[in-house]
């Protein structure tokens, strides 16, 4: 199997529109969660969101092309182009067939589909846009990234709810390991802040409906007052490459992607398996495939959604896999600052995980004032901490009982 390294990072999310801004705000514990502005929420609707602010798609693609595509695609293109620039990877006829795209999307342009459905029913089908189908389907993020960058290698979209980006990075990992690509643009994108999404998640009681006047306090993973997640939007993208290919072109290697674990709960379509059994198997598989021992892991970027059962089960899963070492490593949930980016979550959290290794700074879990029952690990509460971080696990779990863990390690010769 070929070694896989990370050479570039790109991110746009509720706490910033580029890598430097996002990381600075993450380690400062700054919340990007505020009042929902994407649409006017009706009575009894949750009014809080993690929105990307001051973003202009025309900064990253032709204005005409931007108008043809929806916001989740815009975000994916922006993060991908920033990641390529960060990696100093230029695509041309000499290498574009060897570079692929794997961008996971959980939902796609749900708001656009809502609008076109309304148009069809109230104004007739002749008024529906010819861009409707390519406008909302999830794989258009990967498709348009390919169009915008010239990447002609494997082009895929994994849609596994909130683990979509994690699975896509894992897929890219395996494509390179087996020689099917030399480099992959991989991660996730999401922008599903729409009425139906809020109504659906709201009816499930999955969203936090508290803290209306202090939205920055609403996402509080592992805290006893957690009451649901906050939806966010954005995109996080990595450039991963065959080690020999990256070395030959003189790339600045950020770290090595060494492990990928994936599992299914086979338990319930929304609730995690008791004790986080499925998540534990994903983490164990990430360790096994990487050859890492549990005690070698320094930091876990938790899925940590701020839901009662989700946070508890993940905590139990960490204890199952790491035993006594669970109390010696740092854990944090950056969703406390960004909200839950659904299919894009694993992408931005992989970026944060790698930055923690690069800088030796672990971003905090903000709003953690009183840990919840059985939530007794070191969640890096409220303030970033300095620590020599050699190895990181990044977790992403989703509806349908789907679980992903990625293992990153500082580069070794």
UniProtKB/TrEMBL annotation:
Span of domain Ketosynthase family 3 (KS3): 1-410
PROSITE patterns: KS3_1, KS3_2
Active site feature: 162
InterPro entries, sorted: 3-oxoacyl-ACP_synth-2, Beta-ketoacyl_synthase, Ketoacyl_synth_AS, Ketoacyl_synth_C, Ketoacyl_synth_N, PKS_Beta-ketoAc_synthase_dom, Thiolase-like
Keywords assigned by UniProt, alphabetized: Acyltransferase, Fatty acid biosynthesis, Fatty acid metabolism, Lipid biosynthesis, Lipid metabolism, Transferase
Pathway field: Lipid metabolism; fatty acid biosynthesis
Reaction(s) catalysed (UniProt annotation): a fatty acyl-[ACP] + malonyl-[ACP] + H(+) = a 3-oxoacyl-[ACP] + holo-[ACP] + CO2; (9Z)-hexadecenoyl-[ACP] + malonyl-[ACP] + H(+) = 3-oxo-(11Z)-octadecenoyl-[ACP] + holo-[ACP] + CO2
SMART domains in the record: PKS_KS (SM00825)
GO biological process: one example: fatty acid biosynthetic process
E.C. no: 2.3.1.179
Family named by the database record: Belongs to the thiolase-like superfamily. Beta-ketoacyl-ACP synthases family.
Biological role: Involved in the type II fatty acid elongation cycle. Catalyzes the elongation of a wide range of acyl-ACP by the addition of two carbons from malonyl-ACP to an acyl acceptor. Can efficiently catalyze the conversion of palmitoleoyl-ACP (cis-hexadec-9-enoyl-ACP) to cis-vaccenoyl-ACP (cis-octadec-11-enoyl-ACP), an essential step in the thermal regulation of fatty acid composition.
PANTHER family in the cross-refs: 3-OXOACYL-[ACYL-CARRIER-PROTEIN] SYNTHASE, MITOCHONDRIAL, POLYKETIDE SYNTHASE-RELATED
The protein, known as: 3-oxoacyl-[acyl-carrier-protein] synthase 2
Originating organism: Fluviispira multicolorata
């Amino acid at each position: 199997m070929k070694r896989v390294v990370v050479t570039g990072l790109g991110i746009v999310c509720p706490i910033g529109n580029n890598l430097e801004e996002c990381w600075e705000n993450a380690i400062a514990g700054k919340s990007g969660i505020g009042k929902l502005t994407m649409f006017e929420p009706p009575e009894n609707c949750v009014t809080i969101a993690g929105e990307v602010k001051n973003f202009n798609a025309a900064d990253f693609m032709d204005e005409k092309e931007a108008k043809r595509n929806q916001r989740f695609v815009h975000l994916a293109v922006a993060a991908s182009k920033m990641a390529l620039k960060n990696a100093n990877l230029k695509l041309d006829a000499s290498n574009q067939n060897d570079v692929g795209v794997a961008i996971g999307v959980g939902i796609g342009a749900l708001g656009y589909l809502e609008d076109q459905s309304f148009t069809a029913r109230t104004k007739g089908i002749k008024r529906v846009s010819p861009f409707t189908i390519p406008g909302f389907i999830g794989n258009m993020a990967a498709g348009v990234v390919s169009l915008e960058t010239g990447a002609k290698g494997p082009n895929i979209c994994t849609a596994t709810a909130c683990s979509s980006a994690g699975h896509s990075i894992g897929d890219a990992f395996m494509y390179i390991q087996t020689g099917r690509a030399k480099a992959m643009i991989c991660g996730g994108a999401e922008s599903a802040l729409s009425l139906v999404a809020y109504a659906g998640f709201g009816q499930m009681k999955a969203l936090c409906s508290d803290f209306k006047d202090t939205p920055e306090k609403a996402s509080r993973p592992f805290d006893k007052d957690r009451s649901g997640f906050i939806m966010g939007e954005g995109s996080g993208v990595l450039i991963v490459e065959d080690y020999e290919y990256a070395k030959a072109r003189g790339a600045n290697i950020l770290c090595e992607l060494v492990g990928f674990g994936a599992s299914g709960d086979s338990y319930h379509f929304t609730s995690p398996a008791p004790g986080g059994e499925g998540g534990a198997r994903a983490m164990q598989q990430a360790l096994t495939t990487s050859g890492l021992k549990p005690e070698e892991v320094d930091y876990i970027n938790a899925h940590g959604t701020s839901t009662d059962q989700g946070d508890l089960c993940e905590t139990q899963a960490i204890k199952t896999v790491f035993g006594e070492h669970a109390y010696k490593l740092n854990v944090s949930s950056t969703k406390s600052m960004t909200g839950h980016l659904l299919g894009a979550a694993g992408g931005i959290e992989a970026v944060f995980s790698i930055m923690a290794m690069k800088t030796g700074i672990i971003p905090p879990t903000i709003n953690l004032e009183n840990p919840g029952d059985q939530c007794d690990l070191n969640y890096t509460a409220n303030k970033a901490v300095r620590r020599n971080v050699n190895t990181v696990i990044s977790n992403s779990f989703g509806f349908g009982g789907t679980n992903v863990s990625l293992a990153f390690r500082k580069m070794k010769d």
